Amino acid sequence: MDDTESVATATEHPDDPLAEMTDVELAELVENTISANNVLSNETEMFEKYLKRVEPKEPVIETAQQIQPEQGKGKGRKRLRSRGAPDKLLQLTPEQKCDIAQHETDVLRNEMTKMNDDADKVLDSYKASLEELDLWHAETKKGLYEFDRDICKGAINTRTGDIIAEKVSRFYEDKLRGRDTLIEKLRLKNCTMRVLKRKLTLQLKQKEEMGEVLHEVDFSQLKIENQQYLEKIDEKNQELLRLKLMAGNTLQVLNKYKKKLHILTLDSTQLKTDIASKHEMLTKFNAEIEVVNNERVNAEKRNMTLRQRLADYSVPEVQNYVEIKSDLIELRKTVKSWERKVEVAMMALRSQKQQWKKIWLQDHQGNQTWVT
After folding, report:
1. Which residues contact 26 (CB under 8 A, 6 or more apart)?
2. Cα–Cα distance measured from residue 325 to residue 243, given in angstroms and rounded to the nearest whole number
3. Half-sphere exposure (CA, 13 Å, Cβ side) for 257?
């Protein structure tokens, strides 16, 4: 059925260019048409948004009226082509499209900025709430710790084991007094912030009156300058990081050389002490060398004397030696005989001393008896 209809349509419209195209070309044509339709739908959606934003009521009717003839024209496109009288639709010029796109882009940017501001406000409020909760949690923990320290442990009576009421009341009074002080500080801070806010509001009004309010162009210029300064700050940070790395490497090298210098200083001190000890040893060695030299000179002199005496010495004859030797033997015999005689005399002397001692004792005892 489909083949017969396609053949019938081809026979009905012999001048249709689609009939002469292949399947690949038809597929490419369909893809190009779909992409073009997507672009047109995006442009149409953007134009409808623009019309709704500029004229909220009239564009809806106009767009509806434009859509219906377009649908009718789409259905009867073949009939119009067959008749040879196509209807030209009014289209936007590229300049108008560019203006509308720029306007929508600005609107979207403003909406995004507003959404970011709202999100920042919500985030700031959440951060403030979290900070408040953290402070409250810290204060609660501190209060529990102080209550446990001052009341549960420090306010117990050692005799009865009960909690002293006066310490409890004093504890709560101190807490209330501290809260009152904190409230007063916060009130003063709030007043200061209000005064500062009022001052800043007056300054802003004065600037608005004097025409010093910043416009979007100024903000763009400030953003560009801020971006440039941020890039410079990044460069300076990179340079600072590089300098810190260089300083760290230099410090490591400096510490290394300091250690080497310390070791070399210790070695130098040790070498100085060794040199001083070597000098002392050298001085001692020089003194000993002088003494040895003096002894050597004396020894040489004595040696010369002995050599001289040895050279002057004459050996006696054998007959004289024999006579002297015999005389020596005789003298030794005489000495031995006299030694025996001396021993005998000593023995006689000792016996005589003993006899004399006995006689003296007897005489002494006789005198004592006569006296009595």
Report:
1. 18
2. 109
3. 5
